[in-house]
Amino acid sequence: MSETLTATTVIDPIDRDVALEAATPIVIVGHVDHGKSTLIGRLLYDTDNLEDGKVAQIIESSKKRGLAIEWSFLLDSLQIERDQGVTVDSTRLPFRLGDRQFVIVDAPGHRQFLRNMITGAADADAAVLVVDANEGAQEQTRRHAMLLRLIGIRHIIVLLNKVDLLDFDEQRVAAVRRSVTDLLGQLGLEPALFVPASARDGDNIASRSDRSPWYTGPILTEALAAVPGADSRAGLPLRLPVQDVYRFDDKRYVAGRIERGEIRVGDSLTIGAQGSVARVASIERWQAPQRDFALAGESVAITLEPDVIPDRGDLLFPPSSKPLKTARIRARLFWLRQEPLRVGESFRLRLATAEHQVTVASIDSVVRLDDLTEQAASEVPPEGFAEITLAAAEAIQFDPFTPGTADGRGVLVDRNQRIVGGAPLLGPAEVSGEHNAIHPSGGAVDAAQRRRVKGHGARVVWLTGLSGAGKSTIARHAEQLLFSQGVDVSVLDGDTLRMGLCSDLGFSEADRHENVRRAAEVARILAETGQVVVVALISPLAADRALARRIIGDSFDEVFVDTSLSVCEGRDSKGLYAAAREGKIANFTGVSAPYEAPEKPELRIAADAGSAETHARELTEFVLGKIGRG
Amino acid sequence: MDHLDQLEAQSVFILREAYRKLKPLAMLWSLGKDSNVMVWLARKAFLGRVPFPVMHVDTEKKFPEMYQFRDEYTKKWNLDLLLGYCPPVEEMDPTLPPAARSAARKTAGLANMIETHKLQGVIAGIRRDEQGTRAKERVFSPRGASHKWDIRNQPPEFWDQYATPHEEGMHIRVHPLLAWREIDIWRYIEREGIPLVDLYFAKNGKRYRSLGDKDITNPIESNASTLAEVIAELETTRTSERAGRAMDHESEDAFERLRVAGYL
């Protein structure tokens, strides 16, 4: 181990300032075997961007396998990739062209590796879409083009590869070009350029090919040199998402990265959804020249006057430029999970530093990858693309997705903290209440007439609480008490529903959601006949209960049967808790699935103590008050 | 903002995410140039402080200059230093080539520290441009209870949203320097005036470009004895940074095997 390695062979001296330029990230995408890795290897070699060690490695690896120089081996620096002959994960390579720095992001073509591709592609300024001129666009060509649209990459160079297989025939190349143009046009994408090339032979990559004399446009290196740099975000209205709040030495610092705009000491800023206003008292830096302003892209720490305490996730913005605020959001979606997405599933929506609980309220359309048309569908397939509506328990502040900014970059995270989808947020969804708005069989008798005949108003009281909380018992007692007072009353009980109407449903989040939806629809129909309906259903998720409230409308009351988990588990009248603890029942509320207690129920029954009769009387009094019989 | 400003801002963002989301958290301080830059960036992020411990996983085979440097700057920078030691080479996988087997001691030492301190986050100064397998890394790279790196099953990472731990016993390796290149590190050291072990500067026609254990690290031929000369040399070099690290070159997959097992 004592040999000294030789460093430094001097090639052309590089201008010193070059390395101070930010590198432009370029993602290379395309169908498997259309030649991405070969293109990159060839490009790096022809432009003299390979370290000596790497070239030697490629040659040696190729020799060991008895092959001619295999350009793609350069990228496949992992043993497992070479063994499979595919690139398993995106990789990044610094690359210099004249006075400009680039980072080439190589994304794999295998479709099950979409999540690796998005990892590489999401920050790119431009894309090279490699299309085998002989095969034309294939499924992954469409998939990748779709993804370029969804992540907002607008500068696209199409490299028509392997044109040697078309004998460099101008007419045949023009035909492929037309079909790819049509395909991209369907997505609203307009390629900046088409370059006919052969990556393996180096035609029109870094030097102009004499085999395509008819082509006079830029070759690939010229096209890359002409990629516009990222737009400055400093001129836009300020958005500073709070990343954290520190207290050091009796001073409070609000930390975050300026996503767009600029801040100056003295600026007034609105703080998040609560909307209080504070002034920027100082911009704090360590070991840096003091300046009284900071621009988009900087990670800053500021102090506020008055010394208010924002939360992580709060947006700071100028009072004159508010973001949108809504609880129902329309979003695009690229779905990364290997199982389909269904309506009713709940996620955490991460948006810059904020996190919100959301439920998929509807799947509005799904992209069919055969022809890129948008179709109605009940689920989003694995690695599919869609438009969906997200419903949140509270209003979310956001800016619609805009390519070239960080606005509206929603990411969905499941209960296991796994990132399962990207959701560029488009805007507020149409006002909800679609269930209310549509009355296909509008009754011949109206609500007022029913009220006169029955002597009371209609109502839906929705009892939520843990399993064993006493919901059904209280509901049945209240039913008797109300009936004895002449009230037309019925009970929809969770167990009963599951034996009949909902016998096809399990206990997954999607199925629970559907269970709640059906119960709410039935309750609405009964209430429209003038009845009082008592629903007894665990309905653990706030978003699902919010859905029920939307379906039923003004006559809906949420009643929280508040029995603690320990009391419920102590009762365990059905033996379910014991079974859940032993792992015999999955997704059991309170044990292996969450229960989100109502924050502001119309009535809370404290049911840890006292008899079911007492609680039923409390409920009965409440209902009588609501239906005009109190 | 110039290129270094952008890299700095992104690293500060990453360090603040780690500090917010991962507890307990510690930073690996190998005493090399990259990890000194990393400590410096933490002080940028937290206004002069490093609000979590720094760890030196000591192979006891470092150069004496490195130990001196550690003791001096632990005091000067007011660092909360945790020391960990590595098991003897005889306990390491005998099927590894000799240098890689020696380097594997550090993996074992690190694993011990992570378990002892029940760490949820470990900040490490690896860069994509150092080595092919490191180019595949995530900024937040989850490790299971066995500390293994599951290359085939890495989580998606985009739009600055990072993985968080979701299972008992797992931890996250945080890589704030992943996007930096070797020359960026040197330019930043020059701009900020960050102190370094002087083994990086040439004496008698040789200097170290990368520092590891003294028995498996080789100097390169160089006359670069100042920061400016090192930078000028890097601008024109065509050999890779880790050319002097023996374990990278023993067999085609030795380094990958080390990394899958939990090496940095």
UniProtKB/TrEMBL annotation, chain A:
Domain Tr-type G: residue ranges: 21-233
Keywords: ATP-binding, GTP-binding, Kinase, Multifunctional enzyme, Nucleotide-binding, Phosphoprotein, Transferase
Top-tier EC class: transferase
GO molecular function term, any single one: adenylylsulfate kinase activity
Keyword ATP-binding annotated: yes
Pathway(s) where this gene product acts: Sulfur metabolism; hydrogen sulfide biosynthesis; sulfite from sulfate: step 2/3
Catalytic activity, reaction form: adenosine 5'-phosphosulfate + ATP = 3'-phosphoadenylyl sulfate + ADP + H(+); sulfate + ATP + H(+) = adenosine 5'-phosphosulfate + diphosphate
GO biological process, alphabetically ordered: hydrogen sulfide biosynthetic process; sulfate assimilation
Binding site for ATP: G465, L466, S467, G468, A469, G470, K471, S472
Active-site residues, as the UniProt record annotates them: S539 (phosphoserine intermediate)
The EC number(s) this enzyme carries: 2.7.1.25
Complex and partners: Sulfate-activating enzymes, NodP and NodQ, may be physically associated.
UniProt-listed NCBIfam families: apsK, PRK03846.1, small_GTP
Its biological purpose: Catalyzes the synthesis of activated sulfate.
Family: Belongs to the APS kinase family. In the N-terminal section; belongs to the TRAFAC class translation factor GTPase superfamily. Classic translation factor GTPase family. CysN/NodQ subfamily.
HAMAP family: Adenylyl_sulf_kinase
Identification of the protein by name: Adenylyl-sulfate kinase
Organism annotation: Acetobacter nitrogenifigens DSM 23921 = NBRC 105050
TrEMBL record, chain B:
Pfam families: PAPS_reduct
SUPFAM superfamilies in UniProt: Adenine nucleotide alpha hydrolases-like (SSF52402)
Enzyme class: transferase
Domain Phosphoadenosine phosphosulphate reductase: residue ranges: 25-218
Reactions catalysed, as given in the entry: sulfate + ATP + H(+) = adenosine 5'-phosphosulfate + diphosphate
UniProt record, GO biological process: sulfate assimilation
Highest taxon of source: Bacteria
GO-annotated molecular function: ATP binding; sulfate adenylyltransferase (ATP) activity
Enzyme Commission code(s) on record: 2.7.7.4
Keywords: ATP-binding, Nucleotide-binding, Nucleotidyltransferase, Transferase
Similarity comment: family membership: Belongs to the PAPS reductase family. CysD subfamily.
Protein's name in the database: Sulfate adenylyltransferase subunit 2
Source species: Acetobacter nitrogenifigens DSM 23921 = NBRC 105050
Gene responsible for this protein: cysD
